[in-house]
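Q: I'm teaching a short session on how sequence maps to structure, and I want students to see two examples side by side rather than one. Could you give me a first protein with its sequence written out and its structure tokens following it? Keep the formatting plain so it prints cleanly on a handout.
A: Of course. Example one:
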Amino acid sequence: MSNQNFEEKVATPYAEALIAHAQSLNILDQYESELSSILLALSESKDLQAFLLNPLAVNLSKKGVLKKLFEHQVDNFIMSFLLVLVDRRRISFLKTIIEKYLKITYLLESITIVELYSAFDLNKVQQTNLTDKIKLMTSSSQIKLVSKRDSSLIGGFIIKIGSKIIDASLIGKLNKISLYLNAN
């Protein structure tokens, strides 16, 4: 079993529990926003990630850091949830739990998740135009564009919609030319 598979198996019940609680209170959007801000903080701070993943760090200090960072920015239930993850030594799965929560929430709301990998950040007009084209391609009414920078693409972009991949990157085109030249 791959590590990613294992992480998803562990993360799914936690994400589903969060969704069930949020649905019972009719605050899915609030939790989505708060969990997204936690995910953003994790992705922007490699030090925070390393600290939470460190098995030698004492749980009490992990709880203290989480309280200082998020206590006044998230709902009490989410704060308690984070502390339970620390107690159960599952805080290392936090990123996967949040991603799973968002994925399930988007499915519930019929939102198509589109991953965009580009060498440079797209401006608002480019994102809007791309979103409109994707809506036409997928017949979806709502699109959630998740942008990630990948400087190895040189230029252009790669779009992932479920299992479908559209490669409009410069490195992709160069690789195709290389394969063609090597074949002849």
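Q: Perfect. Now a second example for contrast.
A: Example two:
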Amino acid sequence: RARKTKMRVKRARKVRKYLRFYRTCHGFRAPYKVLVDGNFLHAVAQMKLGHAKDVVVKFLGCDAKLFTTRCVQHELKGMGHEFKEASLSARHLGEVKGGPDPPAPAFDSIMAAVDSNNAERFIVCTQDETLRIKLRESSPYVPVIFCHTSGLQMEPPADAQGSGTASQKEEAKGLPERERNALGQEESGVGAVRTNVRYKRPKARGPNPLACKKKIGKERP
């Protein structure tokens, strides 16, 4: 149990660090706008994590608004009884305006929603590995969340990926100073010793009266 708690705290700390980066460098603001696809909704239902919005809000640590596309809703309707719960969940989400009309692939509708360097500042939730790779390659402005056996996970920012190891720190040197600070500031306080604590100097005091007391000599026989 202690190990699970430790992992959960570590994961939450990492998510805060990534969100701080996106807020500082790419203009994301809470409440976050989260765009989900059918695969993600189905995974949440299969893993019995609860309502998709509650799961995402808990993971992000702040309020969020969930959206999907008409193409995702249309795709889920035609996927049979197994995806019924995901289809019902998608109906209660906000719809992204614009983009391709059904029956266009849900993949294309997600890519269209984050086009133009993700002007709407969506966080994308998907289980589609191909979509995740495409989002990672196409733009650094799209945070990606996916379901894992241990819960939700967020991919590291594509333009400042993994600033922890020595080789990755070399890559981070090429980033603007503001981006390096955004990734490093949160982590620098984790497990570090505070160096800004001011200690009061002890005031000079008089001699100890007990030390000044004359010693009593032993009586000679």
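Q: What should students look for in example two?
A: Point them to this: Residues 2-26 form the longest helix (25 residues). Also worth mentioning: The two ends are 73 Å apart (CA to CA).
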